[in-house]
Structures are given as structure tokens and as C-alpha cells.
Amino acid sequence: MNLKSYFEEVIINILKKQGHIVKNAMVTCSNRPDLSDYQSNIAMSLAKQLKKSPITIANEITKLLSENKNLSQIRVDGPGFINVRFSNEFLENSPSIEKFSNKKIIIDYGGPNIAKEMHVGHLRSAIIGESLKRILKYCGNEVIADVHFGDWGTPIGMLITQLQQEQANLFSLTDNINNLNMTISEISDLYKRANSNFKTNEQFKEKARTATFELQKGNKTYRTIWKIIHDKSIDAVKENYEKLDVSFDLWLGESDTNDLLDIILEELLDKKIAIYSKGAVIVPLDSDKAPLILRKSDGAYTYAATDLATIKQRETNFKPDAILYVVDARQKEHFEQVFTVAKLGKLIRKEVMLEHIAFGTVNGTDGKPFKTREGNVMNLKDLIELSEKKAEENISSNLNKDDLNKQIHQIAIGSLKFQDLKNVRTSNYIFDTENFTKSEGKTGAYIQYAVARINSILEKSNINEFKEKLKITHPLEREILLQLHRFSESLVQCHNTREPSILCEYLYSLAQKFSSFYAELPINKESDINIKCARLKLIEITREVLIQGLNLLGIESPEKMLKRK
To answer: Which positions ≥6 away from 18 have C-beta within 8 Å?
Structure first.
């Protein structure tokens, strides 16, 4: 149990003995850490109900709190704020983490489209989704991650139509199609040409729509082309995700629901949830919003239809307690409509939580989506290379080439991820190309550097095991220990709000406290062996929490100290 939960439980039990039932003791971290660790505003909340002044209620509670030996400096401030500090003896018990959730959760993130090179716009879904997956698992849930490729809509029909224009001979013999050999860059360029034609040429547009319909209905030639493009795209996607240390349990896409589309459409039509309208099949929703289109008048199914089929598929295969979609905020209305129809159509149990984890965009210094100097949206591969170049500029080392490159990559990816995750996910943020890999300020490198420094201190101590009990002999030791106890608190907040930035803030604060501790107090040079060992144990636990916290963000921790240029 974390400190906040402990204090809440103590107050709730006191009130219960007094005959008052409350579910929330209104406990927060103190905004005056010089006076207290935690504060409760419960007295103000109960004043009207109990017909007593808040200060009277607060005094009654603090009288009983004083009997708890784990609390010290219990006081009432202002109109009735209850402030407490935990005793040093209580904090000297090693912090622990308890699992507190056991749901089965499917998390849908990544969502790249085949036939396109991944770009900076795919970054946030991958980074936020990977971190949330790890946090949800660490807190005790069974988590299933699905990349959910965009691989079955009109864009595929566009590609097929463009190929028919440019390489008509491909379609004359099956062997010709099987010999189709294009790189992901070539496929991406093909898509750009197809997209341009689709926007400007009505005849092309109609052919692309027809090709989409025929693909979905099983045209063998089109399926063969689709499979080649699909597999080549997946190989490229996996390469990028591997560099980002992002992984999935399921590599499924819209195409995997194709056999369910007709079935679900008939179900919704039979239940009068969906209707025919001008040759299309739609679900009318709120009068002030556009209807949800499931099948277009040309016979092709929409993203909404495949999303509904995916929900049905996940319900059938996994019986989840929740399905989370890490997708940018612009898709808010789409998901609201899809979730509504899924529940109306009973495609999933009513108690299952369907949640859109929305996020903002990655922007350049001009406030617009981050682009290259040439004005194109930057490819993810190029962004990773840029990050590695910036990391290499800031360090020097006598490590061998392989070890050096490994650590440069760790710092680059860690910095890239931390720069994203430290922002509240719903906000847009400016990508800082100059300072994000530096080891000063709120960066991933700063926290990685703290871990490397602790490794160096422990290595130089020549002590293999620190058997001494944690002991507070200085206020800075207490600050670090209090922060270590709050690790589980930050995880509860991250878990419940789906907000990795809370963990980033926590780790940065812990690294800062360690830096202050290291600068002001001797560790290996401490003459008192008991104090020395207690301090070594304290920083060893600090290292464990920093490494674990970084891992939950999807960030590796370099073992050695890297010299800064």
C-alpha cells in the first residue's frame, strides 16, 4: 500500500469508528513539503453534513491520528486542513509495489497503414501505447497489444489501380504479379501518385473504388498484389518498431475481419440499427452529427465497419474487460460513434470499457506538424537517425565502437521517447531538435545519466551487498526515501488516467533529488561505515526505481557513465 492510500485508510477507519461512512478521505501530497508530507481536506467536506465547523472535525480526527506511531507532526492548519508527516522509522522500511488491478485489457496502438513509410506522425501512438502497455502490465493486468494495420480500405484499391496504369503487363499473367518486387520507398511513392490521381481524376477514383470492392470480395489477382504489398510493408514497420523497442502480441489488421463484415452488417440491419440510404448502409445517430457509414454505395466497406468487426472479433476471441485505442485526438467523433454502435448492436458486452486514448500532434517550431527542411513530413527512420546524431554530438567515450553505438542508440531513443512522454498526451508539443538529448534539464538523458552515475558509485564502493537497514541521518536522505515510497502512487495515477507524463515527472524529480544528495553528502568517502552502507543501499534502491520507471516508459538505461563533450 502506498503512503497516500495508507493515510486515506487511516482516516476512513477513524471516521467509520465515529459512525461516518466515507469513500474518499480527500488526501493529496502537501503543497508545503517543508511542513508536511500529505494533507486531507475531509473536514471541510463533512462540515455541512455533521453540522460542525471544519476545524472542530479536523481536531477530532487528529486526536485519534496522534495514536498512530507511523505518523508524526500531525497538525491542523487554516480552516481545517489536516497535515501529517510520516515518521522516519516508517519511511525507513524499504518501499514496495503491490499489484492492484487484474483486468484483461486489449490495447490497440501503432495503426500504421501499409504501402506508406512510417513518419513522425506515427511516433506518438507507438511511444504512448508501448508505455501504457508496460504500465498496465506492471500494475497487474493481462494486456494484449495489437498493432491493427490499416490494410483493407480504399487506399489499397488506389494502389492496385495505379499499378494497372503503370505496369499493365503485371496483370496479364499470375507469374508476373508474383515477381513484383518493390521496396517500401517505391511502394510509398506509388501511393503518393495514386493519391494524387484519386483527388484529381474522377475516372481513376471510380476505378479505385471498384478495385477496393473486388479486393474485399476476393479477386485473386488483387489479393496477390495486396499480399505482396502487405508483407513488404510489415517488414519495414517491424524494423522501425524494433529500433523504438516497441512490440506487439498481435500483428492483425483490418483485413483480418473481412469475413465478419457481411455478418455484422446483416445483424445491424436486422436489429434496425443500420438502414439503407441511397445505396449505402448507414447508422443514423444524433441529428446534429453525420451518420456512421458502414458500406458505401459502391459496395466497399468503411473503416467504421472494420472497426466494429474488430470489436466483435476481440470479444469473441478474448472476452476482454476493456479495449483501449491509442489514436490521435482528431478521431474522437469516429470512436464515439463506433463505440455507441458496438454497444447498441450488442457486438460486445455492455460492461466492457471501450476507451479512446487521445493524443495531440508532434509539431515543429512553427507550430505545424514536424517536417524536414524540404517541407515533407519526416520519415520515422530519418527521425531516429537525427536523434542518434544529436546524441553522438553530446558525448565522448573511449568505449569500443559497438558499445559506443549501443549507448548512443539508447540515449537517442530514450531522449526521443521522453521528450514525447513528458508532455500531457492530449497536448500538441514542439519537437526540440537541439536540446532533447542533453543530460541537463528535463530530458531522458538526464535520468539515464543519474542511473549511470549510481552504477559508478556502487562499483567503486567495493561492497557487494548492503545489509544495513535504511537509516535517515540527513533531510536529503528523507527526501529521496519519501520520493521512493511515492513510486507506487505515481503508477496508480498513470494507470487510472492513462497518462505516462506523470511517471516522467516522478522520475525527473527523483533524479533531481539524487543529484542534490550526491552533490552535498559523501557516500563512498563517508567515514562512518554504517552511514556509508545505508547511503549505498539508498542509492541502490534509487537506481532500481529509476531503471524500472524508465523501462515502463520503454527506455533503456546505459550501464556506464558517458563523458559529456
So the answer is: 60
